[in-house]
YwbE family protein
Amino acid sequence: MHRKRSNITPGLPVNVILKADQRSGKKTKGIVKDILTNSPTHPHGIKVRLEDGQVGRVIDILN
């Protein structure tokens, strides 16, 4: 899980967990559009908005 804001930039391909999928742990793949977490770190992962408008917390950074 990526907890440091400095590791995440717009345009980065990532896997996130959406709010609705937190119980199941289902991952959603997308491209970061906006970083929504203001603090430099967050214990549950950095919250981002994907280019398709979905909002979730970053789990994996993809290559």
Summary: The CA atoms of residues 13 and 63 lie 7 Å apart. Residues 5-61 form one domain.
